[in-house]
């Protein structure tokens, strides 16, 4: 039972490079979320998808784009990475308004 | 906007001691979730509280939501090294939204 799977686990980018963080869940959840975690700031919501085909901005969406590819997969794209995007990124999923289940995270450094 | 304040920000206790972590909201809580995070790992769901005055326990961890639904506490009895980690509270937003806002986390260290 994999739950929420994130790839890659670690990534180092140079300023201006682009990359896509992948997330997949096997729990048949409707809703999926992307958060970033920075020291002393808890988790902040970047984007979420309440259902397949819909996406909405969260608290800190600038510099990111998302795609809800199908019910299982929700990707986060950085078009032109900046040092301020150095963070740990978490994907989560939930069945409607229920408990959110998290992946193990992607540790991203932008130099 | 909904804000959650956790206290303390960090806590060091001796193994076997009891401890309490608090989570205070600026507004009425619509669902309060406690998570635990080990260093370098994702968040593990612990408990969810929804009703004022509600209390839930799992093994040696007890979570409570006050009657006014603006404050929650997480109490650990007879702490063990396995309890070490970061504890985060999260709150659902009103209006049927599915988003959560999180406190900044409490880092718990257990000394042998």
Spans of chain A of at least 5 consecutive residues whose pLDDT stays below 50 are none
**Would you tell me the structural class of the helices and strands of chain B?**
mainly beta
Radius of gyration of chain B: 13 Å
Q: Please bin the fraction of helical residues of chain B.
A: under 10%
Number of strands of chain A: 11
Strand count, sense and barrel status of the largest sheet of chain A are: 7 strands, mixed
Q: What is the count of helical runs of chain A? A: 0
Radius of gyration of chain A: 13 Å
Mean pLDDT of chain A: 93
What order do the helices and strands come in, and which of them pair?
The complex is a heterodimer of chains A (111) and B (112).
Chain A: E1 4-7, E2 10-13, E3 19-25, E4 31-37, E5 43-49, E6 56-57, E7 65-68, E8 74-78, E9 87-94, E10 101-102, E11 106-110
Parallel strand pairs in A: 2-11
Antiparallel strand pairs in A: 1-3, 3-8, 4-5, 4-9, 5-6, 7-8, 9-10, 9-11
Chain B: E1 4-7, E2 10-14, E3 19-25, E4 32-37, E5 43-49, E6 55-58, E7 61-65, E8 71-76, E9 85-92, E10 100-102, E11 106-111
Parallel strand pairs in B: 2-11
Antiparallel strand pairs in B: 1-3, 3-8, 4-5, 4-9, 6-7, 7-8, 9-10, 9-11
């Amino acid at each position: 039972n994999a739950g929420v799977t994130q790839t890659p686990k670690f990534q180092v980018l140079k300023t201006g490079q682009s990359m896509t963080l992948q997330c997949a869940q096997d729990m048949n959840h409707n809703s999926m979320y992307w958060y970033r975690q920075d020291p002393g700031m808890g988790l902040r919501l970047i984007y979420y998808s309440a259902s397949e085909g819909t996406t909405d901005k969260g608290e800190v969406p600038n510099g990111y784009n998302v795609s809800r590819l199908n019910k299982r997969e929700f990707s986060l794209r950085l078009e032109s990475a900046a040092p301020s995007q150095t963070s740990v990124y978490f994907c989560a999923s939930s069945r409607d308004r229920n408990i959110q289940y998290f992946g193990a995270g992607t540790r991203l450094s932008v130099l | 906007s909904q804000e959650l304040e956790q206290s303390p920000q960090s806590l060091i206790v001796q193994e076997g001691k009891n401890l309490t972590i608090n989570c205070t909201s600026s507004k009425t809580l619509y669902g309060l979730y406690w998570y635990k995070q080990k260093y370098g790992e994702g968040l593990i769901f612990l408990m969810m509280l929804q009703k004022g005055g509600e209390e839930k326990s799992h093994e040696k961890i007890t979570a409570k939501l006050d009657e006014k639904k603006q404050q929650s506490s997480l109490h650990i009895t007879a702490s063990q090294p396995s309890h070490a980690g970061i504890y985060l509270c999260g709150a659902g937003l009103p209006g049927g939204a599915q988003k959560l806002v999180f406190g900044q986390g409490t880092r718990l260290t257990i000394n042998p």
